[in-house]
Amino acid sequence: MQKIVIDPMTRIEGHMKVEVTLDNTGTVVEARSSGLLYRGVELILRGRDPRDAARITQRVCGVCPVPHGTASALCLDSAFGISNKIPKNGVILRNIILASEYVHNHILHFYHLCSLDYADIVRAVSYTENDFEPLRQFASRGELAPFMPRYEGDYRLNDDDNKALVLHYIQALEMRRKAHDMLALFGGRTPIQAGIVAGGVTSQPTTDKVLSFYWRARELYDFIANAYLPDVLRVAKAYSDYFGIGAGCGNFITFGFFDLDGDEPDYAKRKRLLKQGTTDRSLKYEALDLSQISEVVRHSWYDDDGTPNPKKESAYSFIKAPRYNGITHEVGPLARLLVNYASGNEEIRKELEILMGELSIGVDSMLSVMGRHIARAIEAKVIAKALCDWVLKLNPDEPTFVPYELPSHAEGIGAIDAPRGCLMHSVRIENGVIANYSIISPTTWNGSPMDDNGQRGPIEEALVGTKVSDPENPKEIARIVRSFDPCIACAVHVTNLRGMLIREVRIFA
User: Fold this and answer.
1) How far apart are CA 73 and CA 411, in angstroms?
2) Between the N and C ends of the chain, which has fewer C-beta atoms within 10 Å?
3) Beta carbons of 93 and 475 less than 8 angstroms apart
4) Class of domain 2-49+61-261+271-286+304-483
5) How far apart are CA 54 and CA 414, in angstroms?
6) Structure confidence by residue, pLDDT tens digits, 42-96
7) Residue 323 φ/ψ, nearest 5 degrees
8) pLDDT higher than 80, residue 125
9) Angle ∠(444,506,148) on CA atoms, nearest 5
10) Does residue 63 contact residue 179 with C-beta atoms inside 8 Å?
11) 285: how many CB neighbours lie within 10 A of its CB?
12) What is the C-alpha separation between 81 and 409, in angstroms, rounded?
């Protein structure tokens, strides 16, 4: 038996530790995924005006704050009794602000977090084209950080495909900026937007904003259709064996995203661009029942009452273990794609079947590392197309916000998918202030530890059974974990206030 410990896992959000145990054949027989941050933002909210939640909860993460602001606003709408009264303009603007963040996140994930697992950026330094001059300038000074040091991959792309991928890596930085420009047009600023609030949105659409947004959205759509999707196909063809690696637990859940109307107060039933629900390997669609969600802490650094306890025996993570109907479920783009494929979403079926035909694979192959990348790219295209349509439906003469009265006592829940998966905010208001606030974020699902019944979390389950070709260079482990796009950055670090060195680690790209 041999143990591999990657601490911290790089090119993800936050501090994550991954431990795997290999048998004598180099196959993973046990895996542990540990979140090494303590999120205390819910405690900060207690005793505050409920309306503060839509601002403060965005500080949970600097990479995906908009989904938290959106889920919080939906939660407060529910508590205030106005969840089905948001004006049409408000519904569209919320979608636009959130979708801009989605596109930014998906481009970030593939190009700037994952593509370096497949593209040889060091080889790109030798290319003579002017587009690669910034990289050559780094190399001429003997500096290739943050690209080095790194785990060495089996770089299989030919020169033309490698050039394209590295070139688009550089262009993707500009595309992400455009997405944030779009977000700020109606959100007021970025990354912590100020537009989405309980009752709707604070900004008002104008003709100049609509046109400015639309042309940027068209640029993003063109980049996704003509660069992002083709790049994912390049990687998928070169690494076709990764359709057989990292399958995971085989159960999938999504809360859906982007409201198409605001008439239904129950978020589990509301009509959305991508539908909420569950499925499994059989691809049988089941409707979503939020009452089936539970959270356990058997192997988490918490006592049963939720008090943090970093000395708890048998615990190995600050992440809790959410389960649906008592079973482990994967969340994120792959879950959304499979649930909507199973439910008969025509656009998703068409996009997926085109790519499956080009790659000569079936739906079962999507339960894999490459399947997650394909699902995210398809979703980015669908969202970018919707952005171009939604912004043209805004009416400058109509309201974006509905007035409301702040209740003295109330409870509310907000459920929506963030880029990385299911996100739920819940609030209890007593005497006009927040008595309790709870957040179940996407990586709480995917990065969860083992539960009371011995069921591993989705990332852990995806690692088990993997053959590691070189334990000194565990590229397979890194590729599997990054395909989930983990986000462990949950606000409050466990820190040594005396400034003492706790441990020293080597960080690999």
Assistant:
1) 13
2) N
3) no
4) mainly alpha
5) 11
6) 888 999 999 999 999 998 887 889 999 999 999 999 999 999 999 999 999 999 9
7) -135, 150
8) no
9) 100
10) no
11) 18
12) 12
DSSP bridge pairs for 200: 197, 401
Band of pLDDT at residue 5, cut at 50, 70 and 90: very high
The owner of tokens 């900004």 is: 203
Beta strands per DSSP E along 391-481: 410-418, 421-430, 433-440
Can you give the pLDDT at residue 490?
Answer: 43
Q: Is 391 exposed, middle or buried (0-12, 13-18, 19+ CB in 10 A)?
A: buried
- Look at residue 243 and give its three-state secondary structure: helix
φ/ψ of residue 108, rounded to 5: -55, -45
Q: Residue 52 forms beta bridges with which residues? A: none
Q: Are 245 and 365 in contact (CB under 8 A)?
A: no
> pLDDT of 336-395, one tens digit each?
999 999 999 999 999 999 999 999 999 999 999 999 999 999 999 999 999 999 999 999
Structure tokens at 476: 């397979």
For residue 78, what are its two tokens? Answer: 């529910």
Q: What distance in Å separates the CA atoms of residue 460 and residue 388, rounded to the nearest whole number?
A: 38
Place of tokens 């008595």: 435
